[in-house]
Amino acid sequence: MMSRIFMIVGSAVLFVCSPCDKAGAVSAEVAKKCEAAVVAAFPPRVPSDPTAGSVKGNVRDQRAYFNECIKNGGTPPSDKK
User: Fold this and answer.
1) What is the pLDDT of residue 7?
2) Contacts of 77 (CB under 8 A, 6+ apart)
């Protein structure tokens, strides 16, 4: 009886966690390329102060641009701005 419970719980854990290992991590190289693309596409207002904001776009725009770049494997999306 107890072994059957362990089998059911174990199967449930494997079923729930099986998609967990399929998501790949972003490589550092791709992240660096995308970060450089974000800085180029959204230049800071004050070159020495990144907290001063961006000349064009806001943080949401930058995040969307970065995420699109990550989806493209490090290739920046076309500038629509």
Assistant:
1) 55
2) 65, 68, 69
